[in-house]
Design a protein that fits this description.
The chain has 92 residues and is mainly alpha-helical. It is built from 3 helices and 2 strands.
Length: 92
Amino acid sequence: LYEDKLLGIINDGAYKKKSSEFKARINKIESRLQDLEKFMDRIDNIDIRKSKHAIRKLYERCTISEKRMILQELFTLESNRGVVTIALKATP
């Protein structure tokens, strides 16, 4: 038996299943963040308004917490560049 803060006390099979589910979710998030990093590298010298379709497409694939992180990163990036235009609309 294993004790988990979120799941309580669970048996070995359930623990392994949940553990693999969590690992898969983490891998998916990491993959999306890598996609974002690659995308941000590509648009580094491009006007973000011209790339809004691609940004929106990537953004729509993300979870709420990922969307918050992405928006925070974009606002920081745009503030540092002195650009005010953001191509995304924040959706909960």
